[in-house]
Amino acid sequence: MPSCLSVPPAALPAHVQQQIQAGLDRRSRGYRGRFAPSPTGSLHRGNLRTALLSWLEARLAGGTWLLRLDDLDTPRNRAGAEEEILHDLRWLGLHWDGPLWRQSERRGLYGTVLSALRRDGRLYPCRCSRRLLADVSAPHGGWAVYPGFCRTVAPRWGPEQGRLPSWRLRLPPGRIRWREHGRLGLHAAPGDLDAASAVGDVVLRRADGFLAYHLATAVDELTLGISAVVRGADLWRSTAAQVAVMAQLGADPPVYAHGPLWCDPASGQRLSKREGAEGLAGLRQRGLDAAGVIGLLAASVDLVPPGSRLSAPELLQELRSRPAA
Ligand code: GLU
Q1: Beta pairing partners, 77
Q2: Atom number in ligand 1 closest to CA 35
Q3: Which terminus of the chain is more exposed, N or C, with fewer CB under 10 A?
């Protein structure tokens, strides 16, 4: 059973409603996947594996694979990372369809959706500081559930002591649900979370003025017509926030497949761009070519035996010849 859908906000302009409808029509016509890295550093093995799996799922389904850069959080973007990501994907033979999408070029669209939700009374300003929230939020699998302090107080919009409020989505009570399915068998548990106790009112515009990743991503999955999202399991709970935004726009979410994270065998910690986990440059320096890297990535999820060497199209061909999982 899907999550409860709301009617789209009355203030949503017709051209945005049309973009959403066009996206929904497109996704109903066939598989449309996407890979959506943030240009905050080099793609590490875990990111590259996600890219490969997402590409394979799309190609196995005879569908389309889009590339979108989640580059809204500009202070975290790293100079040169975008070029490196594009180069790495091409080097591995993971070619995307159509133009490169950048969230930073779609701020107007997200801002319009945000205003419509706000005008419809679906958001409220929040003055809670990060420090307060760190002390009081109930952590839920690494996710801090906002306890709703500012939900019921009279809204204070303007700057106070030089700070603007953040804007939170007032989540309707009930369950937030989504489906998990991937042909490669990597999907996680289907989503079924209680909005109030396990998700909490999510921030859609941050106090520093930045539009939040959940807002942009939800709007993008709908307007770009994404039918299936393959990504790392670290984003499993974030999915609830994005599904909740889509429900506010009157739309069901895509299908998800959250794959396992790649952990460093020495520390047991998951690889992180910020901590400079080894990217393709390091693998190349160790003498691996593209076929060696594809083999390494595919073997890590048991798609091929360890030590395999094959190109991305060869791997696709090999998987096509196997019965669907
Ligand atoms: N850009 C985010 C990341 O790289 C999110 C990706 C996604 O939604 O697939 O972690």
Answers
A1: none
A2: 9
A3: N
